[in-house]
Structures are given as C-alpha cells and as structure tokens.
Amino acid sequence: MLNQVRIVLVNTTHPGNVGGVARAMKNMGLSDLHLVNPQGYPSAEATARASGADDLLARARVHEDLDAALVGCQLVLGTSARQRTLRWPQHEPRQAAAELLAAARSGPVALLFGRERTGLTNEELDRCHALVNIPANPEYSSLNLAAAAQVLSYELRMTALEGRAAQASAAESGGELPAPHEDVERFYAHLEDTLRVLDFLDPDNPRHLMRRLRRLFGRVRLTINEVNILRGILAHAAKGRKDPAP
Amino acid sequence: MLNQVRIVLVNTTHPGNVGGVARAMKNMGLSDLHLVNPQGYPSAEATARASGADDLLARARVHEDLDAALVGCQLVLGTSARQRTLRWPQHEPRQAAAELLAAARSGPVALLFGRERTGLTNEELDRCHALVNIPANPEYSSLNLAAAAQVLSYELRMTALEGRAAQASAAESGGELPAPHEDVERFYAHLEDTLRVLDFLDPDNPRHLMRRLRRLFGRVRLTINEVNILRGILAHAAKGRKDPAP
C-alpha cells in the first residue's frame, strides 16, 4: 500500500532537498515521487543528497502544474506548518497516515509538500481534502523539507507495519527462551543458600533480603541461559565455604 | 520533561550532521545536546545547517569519552540500524520514547547516536539498557543521522504531548530511585573483579560473560538500594579469597 502513496513536492527551491526527500522516502519504503515545477532540477546536489536513493529520483515524474501530478488520486492531504483560518480540517501525522493508507486500498493518494519558505498557496490547498500539521515547537516550528518528509514517511511506514509490530516486542530477551517458573525458583533457593553460606543473609530476617532480590530479578524475566550463568557464579562463590553452625 | 532527555552524538564524522541534529531537536522542543569526540567540530557547516537552532549548538557540551556524557543518567538507550548477534533488547521509536519520558520524571536520560557509517561499538552498546531501531526499509535501511534524530525527537515530542509517557517502569522499581550510570558502572567493575577472584571469569574471554551480565542487569534498571545490596553480596563473596596469580 505504501506504493500507492504519491509524495508531491511543489515548486521546491533547493534541489538538495529533493534528494533528501527521496532518501527519506526510500528509507521508509515509499517509492512514488512527483515534482511540480522544481527549481534548478535535475542537479548534482539532488543526486548527492539522495545517496543510495538515486533510483527513486530517476523514476520521479516532473509536472508543470499540480493538477497533473494529482491525476487519479482520491485523497489529497497537504502539509502545512502553520495554523490557517479554519477552512481545512487539520490532522496530526499519525491520523493522516491512517487516512492515507485506508484510502490507498482503492487507489493512489497524494501527500503534498510546499515551498521551503512559503509552503502551499491557498489555490494549492484548495486541492486538498485536509491538512497535515507536524506539532512542532511553537517557538521554532519550521522543519527542513526533508525532515518533514522523513516524519510523514515514517508515520506511513509505522502505520503500514502496525499489524505485525505488535508481536515484535516479544523478542526483548534477544530470542532466548525464558526460564520456566520452577527453574527460577531453584535459582532463588540456591541464591538464599549461598547468601547464608557467605554469612550475608541475616538469619533473623531472611525474608526481607530475599524479597528484595526477587523483586530485582523478577523484573528481568530471566532466560534459561541466564539462570545457568547466575547459578554458576553462586557455585563458585560458595566453593570452600562451610555452612555456618546453626 | 523533554529537557531531561540528553541527545548524545558519538564521534560524529560530518559536522554538518551535528547542525542538522540540533535543528531537528529544537523543532521538537529538545534542548540538551552532548557531543563525544566530534570530528571537525565546531565548524561553519554545523552552524549553517543548524539554521535557527544555533543557540542549541552554542550550549552543546563536548566530552572526551562516553561515560562523561552519561554522568547522572538512569536510562540510556542506543540507536542501532542493524540486528546484532548477541542481542540487546530492541525497542521501536514509540516505545523508546515512552520509556525515556517515563524515566525522565526522576532525572536525566540519554539517547545515543553512533558514527554515520559504523554506528555504536559493542563497548558503547554495553552502556545501554536497550537499543532503539527505526523499522526502515530492509533494502535501504540506513537513515541520515539528522533524519534518525528527527524521527526520534518527533516521537519524544508526540509522547510528551499525548501525556502517555508509560507509567511502566516508574512503578516497576517500587518507587525507589534508580541508580545513576556511574554507580552502575562501578557495580559492573566490582562484579568483574569479584568473578575474577572467584575464578569464574575466563581470563581469555572476559568480555563475553560481562556483556551477558550487563544485558541481564541492564534490563532491570537497578535502583540505588539494589546496587548497594549487590555490592554487599560481592564483598562477602570475595572475603578471604586471594586474587589469583596472573
């Protein structure tokens, strides 16, 4: 569905920014770049900043007016740095990404970026169903064009991936198998014995320390390998020590 | 809370990228930039790319080593483009932002960005509690440094604005204060010494075991009290043992 999202740069002033946008798009799996009246383009600077995304630049389509770039699109969103009179609905990037990808199921959609200094004209905004606003620092709100494209492309990719992103976080322990309850309990028993042998555990109040240590290791969700390492350390620590007389 | 998030650039090669990161940070309301051994910095190119964020560059602190940049930090996350063999816990940017801001309630936290070509070394990753991975296009996954900083800064701002900084980890440690970076490093040094004294550490390959143990305790985010307990155990374990002859 990311292939259905058309990124349209309108009248870009600095060709380097076109390259930066191409790189940001390719990094996030987008591929369909359209340029409306780009200034000083094509240029070596655009290619240099595109880095490994020059294939995407080479396939970019150049148009003489915005309407030509929007042919076939059913949903058009325009990025806007500032609040305007409430003529257009405003979305945050995440909501915009969800709307674009929902619409992209049935055909191409477009996301417009205006000129570096002045953005999109009212006539261009008239082509948009809604505006997208990156909620930047009000005291310094103007993002570089490539940076704004990076944020929106990132949200589009995250939205596309979201279905399978949910499962991803399970891999926290690096793919190792978590230790089953009974192994962890044996580790705690071994730890308690060893602390007694080391004369560290207060025999009058053993539970307090063990509870604290359980709380510590309980937060980790130990793996099988980690339990083995920790028990190896305990065995070495106790070696040659005698259990104190009761 | 965004003021508590330290952005740490390690050994950046192109000073222009330092400026690009400063601009991305200021756009998103971040302000605390730290540079570890930046190449060719300060430079006119950094200032030019910072655009209106030169105040943030002027306040940036330059350090000679990473530990100096992390003093006082309770949570350290490292950005990483690729999967590693001995894996650290991996977060997506949104989850990372929630964890950083949750921890930032009680003090400074850090987000590390490595060198443009080679990222962070394993020794630098050892300082991290977890890694952050921007889920990029697998066929073209390397983001420009300023673009990666833009994505993470954006997620931090969105999280801050949404007020959904995870309650997660604050409650996990039972309201106790987390140990700062330098205390945890002293614990690791003590642990390594003790394991050597106990003859548990393989002197031919000390790093492998220590990296595994760092990964284990890194997931816990030790509190100050817990570090004290663990070091008390280490002291008892080493008592009466002699350092083996080299």
Q: TL;DR?
A:
Two copies of one chain form a homodimer. Chain A is an alpha/beta fold and 246 residues long. Chain A has helices at 15-27, 44-50, 54-59, 66-69, 93-104, 122-125, 145-168, 181-197, 206-220, 224-238, and strands at 5-10, 32-36, 61-63, 75-79, 90-91, 109-113, 130-132.
Which helices and strands appear, and what pairs or packs with what?
Two copies of one chain form a homodimer.
Chain A: E1 5-10, H1 15-27, E2 32-36, H2 44-50, H3 54-59, E3 61-63, H4 66-69, E4 75-79, E5 90-91, H5 93-104, E6 109-113, H6 122-125, E7 130-132, H7 145-168, H8 181-197, H9 206-220, H10 224-238
Parallel strand pairs in A: 1-2, 1-6, 2-3, 4-6, 4-7, 5-7
Helix pairs in contact in A: 1-2, 1-7, 5-7, 8-10
What does this structure look like?
The structure is a homodimer. Chain A is α/β, with parallel strands linked by helices and about 250 residues long. Chain A folds into two domains: about 1-170, SPOUT methyltransferase, trefoil knot domain (Alpha/beta knot, 3-Layer(aba) Sandwich); about 180-240, Helicase, Ruva Protein, domain 3, CATH 1.10.8. Chain A has helices spanning about 15-25, 45-50, 55-60, 65-70, 95-105, 120-125, 145-170, 180-195, 205-220, 225-240; strands at about 5-10, 30-35, 60-65, 75-80, 90, 110-115, 130. In chain A, helix 1 links the parallel strand 1 (about 5-10) and strand 2. Residues about 165-175 of chain A have low confidence and may be disordered. Chains A, B: This is tRNA (cytidine/uridine-2'-O-)-methyltransferase TrmJ. Chains A, B: Its main location: cytoplasm. Chains A, B: It is an enzyme of class 2 (transferase).
